[in-house]
Amino acid sequence: MTLKQPFETVVAVHGSTVLRVCRAVLGTVDADDAWSETFLSAMRAYPDLPADANVEAWLVTIAHRKAIDVTRATSRRAIPTGELPETAITPEAGHDPDLADALARLPDRQKQAVAYHYLAGLPYGEVAAILGGSTDAARRAAADGIATLRRTYPGVATRKGEHR
Amino acid sequence: MNTNHDLPRDLARAYEATPEHLRALQARLAAAAQGEGILDVAYRTVDSPVGSLLLAATEAGLVRVAYASEDHDTVLQTLSDRISPRILYAPARLDTVARELDEYFAGQRHSFDVPLDWRLSAGFRSTVLHRLPEIGYGHTASYAAVAQLAGHPRAIRAVGTACATNPLPVVVPCHRVVRSDGGMGGYLGGVEAKRTLLSLEAAA
């Protein structure tokens, strides 16, 4: 199978995952800009992408760079307050503000490792390629992040019983 | 130690977007891609008396009209292979032709005046298709007459092939080409669709 799918299919298949990753890394408001920049940039380069490339890893790699750009632009604009911006934890209906809040408080690297491995489903080798550093370091960053979430996310204790 | 395996699922849920939100982002992407000149193929579908029609346009013009029987996903994959994979659902570029098709199916329009991109037909087939608009609304011509018109009177079978592979059915009226003995002949959208179009044009 060497055929390249129409880009619309790429958006349909990967759009929601890439948005989750952007929301986890940046917060809900900035995520839309990062998502748009990611897919616009991906669409520009799409004809040259090898037909057998891992599209999801490719998109997350682009999203990672775009998120950094958006973060830099936001920090240039922002007045430092020493608190988390409200926008980072603005929930939509059905969202879990506690978990989003807990993730937003993680160090960037852990947050990214958790998002790319647990939300995008990338193996740690791919996560390491995106973050730089070794596969083990990526695995540790994600494990540390998850450990902190388990400790600080208030929903975990009550949910355990419900699902078992 | 009791680990919580639902955490990844909770994470996915925490950042779930609504379908409406994703559609809005897709529309924003389509507009931005159009603005940057990288939307190589825009498409949409329209409902019609002959079923759902896929409409696709390049920057140059309408490049494909496809019946549901041709399978729209297959058609989009072919457009990706033959023109460019930079394809998005982007109805705006197809607004004019969609409106003209509505008018046509309401019996209020007898010809189409949107720009056409002929790149999906070549050679003698293309020559044949270029002549078809000369068969007026409500009229028919035989395969033999069209062969004559295209300058190759004996190429009757080739005319049939050209019609059967018309990338722009309805708009380029291959449905007006019929058999010399009065039979309708085949049609890429099915004989029933051909009958519907000819009846529509005969009634108006």
> Strand sequence of the main sheet of chain B, in spatial order?
3-2-1-4
Would you identify the CATH architecture of the largest domain in chain B? 2-Layer Sandwich
Helix content of chain A: over 70%
H/E series of chain A:
HHHHHHHH
Alpha-carbon distance between the termini of chain A? 41 Å
Number of helices of chain B: 8
Give the structural class of chain B.
alpha/beta
Proportion of strand residues of chain B: 5-15%
Number of DSSP strand runs of chain A: 0
Mean of residue pLDDT of chain B? 94
- Ends apart, CA distance between termini of chain B: 78 Å
CATH class of the largest domain in chain B: Alpha Beta
Main sheet record of chain A: none
Shape, per Cα inertia axes of chain A: globular
> Oligomeric state of the chains?
heterodimer
Count of individual domains of chain A: 1
Most extensive chain interface and residues per partner: A-B, 43 and 38 residues
The string of secondary-structure elements of chain B, in order, is HHEEEHEHHEHHEH
Total number of distinct structural domains of chain B: 2
Question: What does this entry show, briefly?
Answer:
The complex is a heterodimer of chains A (164) and B (204). Chain A has 164 residues and is mainly alpha-helical.
Characterise the protein shown here:
The complex is a heterodimer of chains A (164) and B (204). Chain A is mainly alpha-helical. Chain A has one domain (7-158): Butyryl-CoA Dehydrogenase, subunit A, domain 3. In chain A, 71% of the residues lie in helices and 0% in strands. In chain A, α1 packs across α3 and α6 packs across α7. The radius of gyration of chain A is 17 Å and the shape is globular. Mean pLDDT of chain A is 85; it is low at 84-94 and 157-164. Chain B has 204 residues and is α/β, with parallel strands linked by helices. Chain B has 2 domains: 7-105, Double Stranded RNA Binding Domain; 123-203, Winged helix-like DNA-binding domain superfamily/Winged helix DNA-binding domain (Arc Repressor Mutant, subunit A), CATH 1.10.10.10. Chain B contains 8 helices and 6 strands; from the N terminus they run ααβββαβααβααβα. In chain B, the strands form 2 sheets. Chain B has a 4-stranded mixed sheet with strand order 3-2-1-4. In chain B, a hairpin with a 4-residue loop joins β2 and β3 (62-67). Chain B is elongated and about 70 Å long. The N and C termini of chain B lie far apart (78 Å). Chains A and B meet through α1, α2, α4, α5 and α7 of A and α1, α2, α3 and β4 of B.
